[in-house]
Structures are given as structure tokens and as C-alpha cells.
Amino acid sequence: MEFAGTARPPRMMRLRHRGRPRTAASGSQARLRDGSAVLIRPMRSSDAPLLAEGFARLSARSRWLRFLTVKNELTPAELRYLTDIDHHDHEALGALSRDGRGVGVARYVRDNTNPRAAEIAITIADDWQGQGLGRELLTRLSRRARQEGIRRFTALVAADNAAMIALLRTGGGTLADGGSDTVEFEIVLAPAGSARPRRAVSLLADSMASPAR
Questions:
Q1: How far apart are alpha carbons 12 and 105 in whole angstroms?
Q2: Residues 62-73: tens digit of each pLDDT
Q3: 18-45 pLDDT, tens per residue?
Q4: Which CATH superfamily is domain 12-150 in?
Q5: Which of 108, 119, 170, 194 gets the most CB atoms within 10 Å of its CB?
């Protein structure tokens, strides 16, 4: 279920889970702008075939935006990493269409050196973009992160990925660092119990202890 590219944190694949796996919570439905409904639930280890099938449907452009490199397939090790998660240091929420296909994923991985920070990736299937699914996933992922003690998100995005940049800004993100090819955004999460992330200050001026992910 890790689909069409909207963000690709390059360090995410190198992080490792620190805690024991937790049981994934059950999901709930969300209604999108066009009236279609999706089921959003935590990723399960049994979702590896579903994720692989979704990746196979991606265009070359979508794969590039997701990984910022040419990538023709997900290896067994990558599929295992992306689905066999602990729902604490590593969380992923997948969206399923009525026919059971994966149409989007939002993921965070906690920083190894700063437990209050995490890097995120959000990916939406090409034919499901523009319906508000990315925003719904980001909202739910932010809620889960606050429940697990995370207070800051970062995301590294292709500089020409207008859709992801717009989504991050809508979610309260601010530009933390930028270059000709990639830009990094930060979202400072509101305290647990708040409905939405609050707008963040620049990463360079952040008073928290250290860098994300």
C-alpha cells in the first residue's frame, strides 16, 4: 500500500524498530471529496503482498517522487520493513478502497536520537489524488504520533513535488531547509487532545533537543 509518490524520507529505510511489536488497532471509514469511502487502518505484516501490488501499479514518475531514485521493485527486505512494524516507533496507516485495493499510506518513523521527533512519508495512488485523502491520512497519523509521545514531524520532499508541499503546508508545515532538488519541512504537533497540528517554527530555530529521524 505504499503508493504514488508524494514524499520520500531517504533515511527512513535505515532506521530500526526499538520496541516489541504492538497489536494493530482496528480501522475506520473516511468519506472523501468525491463521495467515495475508504477504510483507514494500521498496516499489518500480512499486507506485504498488497503493498507489492500497489507498487507495481505506480508510474515511473510516481516511483521517482516516492524514492527520489529509479526503483523498479521493492525487495523482500523492504516489504518486511514497511509492513512488520511495532506501531510505536514505526507506524503506518493504510487506506483501502471498497474493492480492497490499497490507495494510500501515511507513515512515521521515530528518530533514533530524539524520541520526540519522527520523519514521515505520505503516498497516494495516482488516481486517488486530489480528493483529500492525503490530508485525512496526515491528520490521523498526527493523532497517532501524539499518542506515542512524538511532538515533531519532518519530511524530505522533491522540490518540484507541488502536491506534497501543499499538503504539508496545509497540515501546519514550515520550510526548514531547501535546495535545488529537495526541501525539508517540519510540523510541530499540538499537545495530545488537540484536533490539529499547530504551525511550526523553523527547524533551525527549534528549541527541541535534536534532529529528527
A1: 14
A2: 777 777 777 888
A3: 555 565 567 899 999 999 999 999 999 9
A4: Gcn5-related N-acetyltransferase (GNAT) (3.40.630.30)
A5: 108
